Every structure is written in structure tokens, then in C-alpha cells.
Amino acid sequence: MLKSVLGASTVVTLGYGGNAAAASISCVAKVRDLASGGPPAGTAQFTMIEPKPTQAKTNWGWLRVDVRRYDLLKKGPAFDAFEAGGKIYKTSAPDVEVVGASLAKNQNGYPKDAWVLAYFDDSGALVSTYPSEQLAEPGATPAAQSCLASVNPGAVGNFTFGG
Questions:
Q1: Taking 60 as the threshold, does the pLDDT of residue 112 lie above it?
Q2: For residue 153, what pLDDT band results from cuts at 50, 70 and 90?
Q3: Contact call for residues 125 and 63 (beta carbons, < 8 A)
């Protein structure tokens, strides 16, 4: 009977147990359903204020990054920026890459802490961060703490969770 229902389809099993697989599919589907609120969007995926847990179940996973002083070819004033995915982004415009930036000579008082929204694959492994990723899609989706804990409990300790 199962064969007749599936026809010539191939059955693909996920690389983790049934309960975790169901949790993963459910978590990811909810995150990608923007009607349910979804994760922070746009430049709200970067913050200089440590994300704090909320009473809501939307305590998203954030990765800490270092903010340092940069300049452009020693011209103009130095500016605060962070590195993500091998590219430099100003804290004042965290979604726009700064091409040609290099570390400023004076780093007194730096680095400072900042956080970027983390993106995970369906197994709960980190695949990227904002601004390299900016929208939830298959293979790269933000995860709430409860979701990540159900899919990849070992990853939870590596992230800051907050709303």
C-alpha cells in the first residue's frame, strides 16, 4: 500500500531522528512564514546592544562580532565597522559593504561587541550570518532558541539568544 501511495517517488530520510526531523521541519516552516512575525529583518539583524531573552518564543540566535575602527586609504575620518563573510560593513549602514576599508592605526577602546543574526541549515548548523544572508530561505534560516535546542542542542551554547 505504501508503494502505491508513493508511486515511483524516492523516499529521502533526513540525517537525524524522526522527532528531531519533525521539529526541524516545523521550526523552519514557522520561521519562513513571515505572517507569523518572522525573525528581525533589514538592518535590525545587526545590533550594538546585546540581545536579551524575552518572554516570547522568538529568542533568535545571534553571533557576536568585533567592531573595530577602519578607514579608507588613510583618507577621511575613521569609522566603526565589523567583518562578516570576509567583507567589511559600517555599523551605521550594516547592509552595505565598504570596499577598500582597512584597519585604522588607532584601535584604542576597540574592539567593541556587536551581534549579527545567525542563519542555520535545517540540521541546526551555522551556515552564515547577516549581512551575508538577509532573508530566510531554504538552507539558511534564523532559528529561535527553542527550535535550535530541539534540532541541534550542542549548538545552543555558541550563540546569544534574544528578541
A1: yes
A2: confident
A3: no
